[in-house]
## 1
Amino acid sequence: MPKRTDLRSILVIGSGPIIIGQACEFDYSGTQACKALKEEGYRIILVNSNPATIMTDPEFADRTYIEPLTPEVVERIIEREKPDAILPTVGGQTGINLAMALHENGALQRHNVELIGANYEAIKTAEDRQLFKECMARIGSECARSGYAGSLAEAEQFASEIGYPLVIRPSFTLGGQGGGIAYNIEELRAIVSRGLDLSPVHRVLVEESVIGWKEFELEVMRDKADNVIIVCSIENFDPMGVHTGDSITVAPQQTLTNSEYQAMRDEAKRIIRAIGVETGGSNIQFAVDPKTGRRLVIEMNPRVSRSSALASKATGFPIAKFAAKLAAGYTLDEIPNDITKKTPASFEPTLDYVVVKIPRFAFEKFRNTDPLLSFSMQSVGEAMAIGRTFNEALQKGLRSLEIGVAGLETRHTPPERMEKMLRTPTPERIFAIGDAFRAGMSVSEVYELTAVDPWFLRQMREIIAIEKSIAGINDAKALLHWKRNGFSDRQIANLTGRTERDVRDARHSLGIRPVYKRVDTCAAEFEATTPYLYSTYETENEAEPTSRRKVIILGSGPNRIGQGIEFDTCCVHASFALRGIGFETIMVNCNPETVSTDYDTSDRLYFEPLTLEDVLEIVDLEKPEGVIVQFGGQTPLKLANALAAAGVPMWGTSVDSIDIAEDRERFGALVKKHDILVPEHGIATSEAEAFRVAQKIGYPVVVRPSYVLGGRAMAVVYDETAMREYIGYAVEAAPGHPILVDRFLEDAIELDVDAISDGNDVVIAGVMQHIEEAGIHSGDSTCVIPPYIITQRDQDRIRRRTVELAKALKVVGLMNVQYAILKNELYVLEVNPRASRTIPYVSKATGVPFAKVAARVMAGESLQSQGITSEPRVEGYFVKAPVFPFNRFPKEDTILGPEMKSTGEVMGSSPTFGEAYAKALLGAQVKLPLGGCAFISVNDNDKRQVVIDLARELRNLGFSLIATAGTREFLTGNGIEVGLVAKVHESRPNVVDRMINREVSLIINTPLGRSAHYDDTYIRKTALQLGITCLTTLSATTACVEAIRVLREGVSTIAALQEQHAS
Amino acid sequence: MFGPFRHGYNPRPMPPALLVLEDGTVYRGTSFGATADTIGEVVFNTSLTGYQEIATDPSYRFQIVVMTYPHIGNYGVENIVQQSDAPQVAGFVVRDAIEEPSNLHAEASLSAYFAATNISAIQGIDTRALTRRIRNEGAMRGMITTRADRPIDDIVAEIRNAPSMSGLDLVQRVSTSSKYDFNENAAGAKRRIAVYDFGVKRDILRQLTRQNCDVTVFPAQTDPRTILDAKFDGVLLSNGPGDPEPVTYAQENIRKLIGQIPLFGICLGHQLLGLALGGRTYKLKFGHRGGNHPVKDLRSGRVEITAQNHGFSVDPDSLSENDVEYTHINLNDQTLEGFRHRREPVVAVQYHPEAAPGPHDSFYLFDDFMRMIEEWRVSRD
């Protein structure tokens, strides 16, 4: 069937900001879809609120809207652009929800727009629990038996029908709070009563427990001619009970017989047909009882998903790209297989390797939350590894995580905690399993506690058995055996008391080197034309390096808070730019979600861990002209010294300059020489010294252990008590390291500046003003380009200083500087001579792709020759707002601080600041109240004119006001009508009661000092649970009030990037 | 039926072993299963699951099968999936043989099974490199041996002395010696089907049973008169090993059946039908073996994912389009995958609609066979 010619233009919906459960994979799928449809000649209109994506690069669509993903805004875009169809299936749940909303509010019908990929009924049937179950029943598929109970009696009735154990899940609680497993009627009564209380709709789902069952996923594709293929099977290492996004997963499935697998495949085909997904990819999850083989259907996603991105990377079969082609009317047999070129896409990929995906968590940032894995996803990223065996892939995956392990190393699990560590799913369980085998436990004992399939356990036991045999590094046969089982040089070094260098030298002298095999979709049956490679220890090397001019770009590894899509985007830009000027680009990365690990992005892709060992082997083989470490965040930067020491040609700013910026002492000397003001600071190596230093500087101070990254364990302390508490925590985070103490510039205005230099000229890329005061991690700050309340004089000072720093550090490429202005003084807070998190945002705001420019600078092209001679002029305002994962961590305080907690960002733009900010908040799904009652409680420092102005403005906008005694006194004293409300400990009804009664729509609560932070925590937590907007700084409140004024009128301007940067 | 097996994790240390190809390439690994020398044509199979079905498929007679997926033996072996009474392969080659299966259906481990059934196998070799060699150089004979110190030249000479697949009639060696009934669950069967056993897989018989047929399996050399006289409703020409050309008696017999009774040919049966209709067959460079080959049904336009196992193929240019309609082609290499006679009740497919192992997309062909039988019956009434 040829492509549809009745369609001319297609609107593609992106997935918005990176959040837990929806990350880079949708940039990957969206980018693929846009490319695939554009290449068919369709006019592409793209909407996505996330500026850090590749898909929002203007060349991927004819019209690119970085606008909030709300039905109203998207309808405005439909009105403007008149697309014939919408592709909602590549934008994650966001895309699906938007499409459903546009159908339900009649917009699709009004504008005569068709949904392609999946229609409304199919999505509805897949997403609605009840419709799905009914549909499954019709085709004879079994789901877990379940029902909703609104009372204890109903729940008991279900229990008598279904039997124990039962899973109880309260409806609509944040992060799935309040659920549990009942093994008997007493537990049932306790959990159901609590669940009914917690559920805002007083309802719980009572479901047959399949915890401990084996979990599988199939990635299914269907075309218009009703051809159905299974792209990939995935088996979860963690059994049912852990969200698949939080599970270690393995492809292909390992433990089903052919008969079992084919029956599952048949069922998947029946399901995609019954649900009615006409074209595209779907993900279907199954649970299998290991004792009986009974199989249940868990759920189906009628769209491309995180798993489909993983499946694409695991097989070399680009699901999203082909889904887009199928949506445009092609059939699978009309699409050529990308990798073999000669065979069609209407086949099922087969693997001759094992793929292991391991999630990465951020529990260290959420200290009130137990690291328990459950039904609600909590991981923030993942690493994927490819090996010829499970052992090899598992160990490569573990070292890819960058969590301080070089493989399946011991965590010294204490014997008394062993059972609990095995029984409870946590990020540490995989290591506890290793320790259990080290302690001599049997597979069946570990199976009893973990329910992890014995197949995986036996492989792990084998790893431990090999580990125990490791001694000495000079036996070639033994060393090869270890390497074949995935042991890294560092791991062997740790086990033998040698250095990694010793092991590497010994290995090289024995001639033991990895070979590289190709991911080719077909297990070598056909020739692969695409160099998508992974390392292993075998006999034949398929890398076939070329003799072209080439450069290696090191990626950023698994997503984590502080290092995410922004860096991947920079790496991809570097690759595009260098390909554009004739270099062969070689990408090294291990994050399966990303565009950088699309085999289409660079000339060659090495899907490998970003460790010294793995990178050096690739460098040795490829012999590139240069290696770029500047774009992938801290991951490649950490390797810079060692790579340079090994003689690897490094491009960009010198390793020495990077070291100056990172090393406090050397940096201190630099700022002194240039007479640059930095906050007063000191170093403490003991508690007593910390008190002395803090005393000298004066509280509050910012404290952090040296040698930690991303604001990890960084805090603002207000007094000695808090300092004492902090030191205990810091020692835990970085034992043996001194503590850095800086003056906290309370109430300062903070700015970020990105700049670029070719070694001679320096050009400012963008100056961003933070909307919150200093003290909040720059990644968590809402900021605006251009600065909107900074004097021209200060802006000029900042620009001069930036140029000075770039020259002093001899920057070649990008640089980011953080400044604070307090009482007319300009402080430098931090300098990073590398691509920063804000580069993609700055690039979108200015229309200049700075990472691309920087890559060409590193290749030797001057800024002048690229036509980059002055700071780009910015028309209007571009606001970047962060998105936080607090709904997944309901026990956490939402107050922001120097430790970064956001997972993603959105951009809002407009000719006016207020509207740009309003759009950024809309995009970040911050629902500002347009009226109602505002509660104000500000600290004594904030009791100044600005609060009076704000209160007056809120009154003008129709809000009524209530305040706690002190704030009320201050406001009424200034002639503003304010009601009184009690603090929680004062009397009842207090403010929390009023919140629960839905009498409060907006909270303005600025704590000052650590104790106030603690005191007000309950208000913020309640606000989070009830979804009430809670503002904790006056600058944010000022901006929000402006935004509320805009939102009351409705968003009035929308614009495509292509219009904004038309000149 | 597997004999005594070792359960639990107690593998005896296995000797080193070699896989040597006739071009002198040597792959070093470790023996598993039996340890005796074995020679066969080395072919690869890309199926992720179904190693036991593959090992017991008589079409693999005289072949050493390389499984491209590295871990083999994961879920053990079980009696019910056997395609014949015992493994048929000459040898088995894997990257990593799993000693302890994990599956509720597992009755024994693959290595114990091979040890008990005298199948020599080798593990630990770079199966991808080996597969690429076969792909690039074409199918070759090879030997698995545990006599690792033997001069390679001697081994190569011995391999070269072994018969080559082309021109060899392997059917005689796998066909049943006497006819037997296969009536697993057909109480009050609707139809009776005769199966010519050229090396039939048991799942073909099971599929016929599922169609509510009584099945009688005949030796390959059975006189067609015997079958016509017994008034069967249809004849299935089974799969089988090796080159169809030397199996001249079967071609003769089939020629006598065309137009007399509905015929359904599978794999070797398809090739023999092609030859009986005056066509030619040729040897593919390295064959089709796996469970992921796309085959297009030219009548419906639909693509089915198929199980395949053949080294020879029917040359479509050799058949008269006046007599024969091509119904199926392989989308990977455009080879002929199925045809029907334009006037007589004759259909055939090159691939394996019974799967076992592999996808079930093509079960419909058994329905089609039944429909053809019904139409034939009606037309004759």
## 2
Amino acid sequence: MNERPSILDGLDPEGRVRESLLETLGIGRTELLLAALAGAATWTAGHASHAAGAGLTENDTRILRFDLQLEYLQATMYTQALRLGHLRPAVRDAARVVGAHEWAHAHALKTILGRRAVPPGFFDYHGVTEDEHAFLRPAVAFEDLTAALLKYQAIRLDSRAVLAAAISLHSVEARHAAWLRRIAGVLPTLTAFDRPASQAKMRDLILSTHFVAEDPTTGARRAPGFTG
Amino acid sequence: MRNRRPVIAAVLTAATMVSAAALAVVALHGRGAPAAGDSAPGGTRMAHLSADAAALAPPAKPAFTVATPRPLRLSSRVSMWAPVILPTVARARPRAHAHIVARISTRTPEGTTNILLALGVRRDAMHRLWVHVRLPILPTNTTGWVRRTALGGYRFVRTRLVVDLHALEATLYQGRKALFHAPVGVGAIGTATPVGRFYIRDRLTRYASPFYGPIAFGTSARSPVLTDWPAGGYIGIHGTNEPKLIPGRISHGCIRLRNADIRRLATLMPIGTPVAIESGR
């Protein structure tokens, strides 16, 4: 399943990030597949039905909702890695700053989307946040991909005001990518011109990581059987 | 005098060159730029660039802006839990062949997702991840190690509930701040509420059983006495249809609150909240 072309191919010609990401995540483990499928359903449903936001076109709402979910995915990963406490000081310092940026992006997107904002999802990083080595690779990949995605989306936005805001995020995501690449020992940039990554391909790649998980059912409408 | 003439000439030449360079810098910055059509190539270029800049459309005001955030805090007063996504076993040590402490199912007796409070993470010699967890079994306070692959994603909570069996009070804290405080009914003599460290597993609502009040929280605590109770003898935190008995030692081990209090607690206490039941003496 990992042989098909991916947006990482364009961003990571040597295949280092992609290979490491997929290897780290152990894609293909049967026990994770069911949870991932359930999560995929949630993810897809979250982006399939929505109404245009106040002041936003249907098209722009669709783009910003996707970005919001992606920001949640990244921000939660940084927060979780920090809380688990297995990062060296250099990585920890970067994660504190970059993670705070991602939460700020999420907050801004949530504010402009208002009632159309998607709620934060439930994520399972499958061991990535417990280990610095495993953490850095998807962190780099997601920063790369977010910059590439924003490049794809920017020219599709209807509103110039939304475009002006989006490009202010784009350059920051590119800086995050360069920062984390440097820490991970990967060249900050490989090409003179970056290629965009489409939203559909980005969604497929995110689903292939199995990071989007089913929300556990912790509530029920049934009579308790406790001792009383 | 003969020797000084070349020096003076050199100084004058240098001064002339510096002046010319200064004029060129001024021109490049647009001050005293030559008129269009001037024969100076740099001047023409600058004039064109200035004209292009002036002809640009006005900028759009960004639809949103992002304030400069503070770096994320390294908070230590956070607890972590994870759902059980695969039936598994808890072992005494983080090793594949260590003694089995308990078998863990994916569901609670209430039909909700079984969750475990995570206390730490470690890798074994084979580089496999193990999670140290608090177990919902007897004896009280038992912990064990489960494979990370059996668990779903982590969730974090900042709250903790403390139940004082001596003072007959429950207090919900966030950090050092008390968010909630209320009198409670606890286990009677012979069916005492177990003392120890537990966590909130689930929340039951909209059932037709006035005995438990409007809301009941399931905990990981089990009665050491009522071990043959149909649903496993788990201790709940719930409302009541006999509020006059609170505070008191009146239950089979459960922690009872007045209905107004359990409703308020339900707005403040998330699933996964650690529960410390203390003797208070």
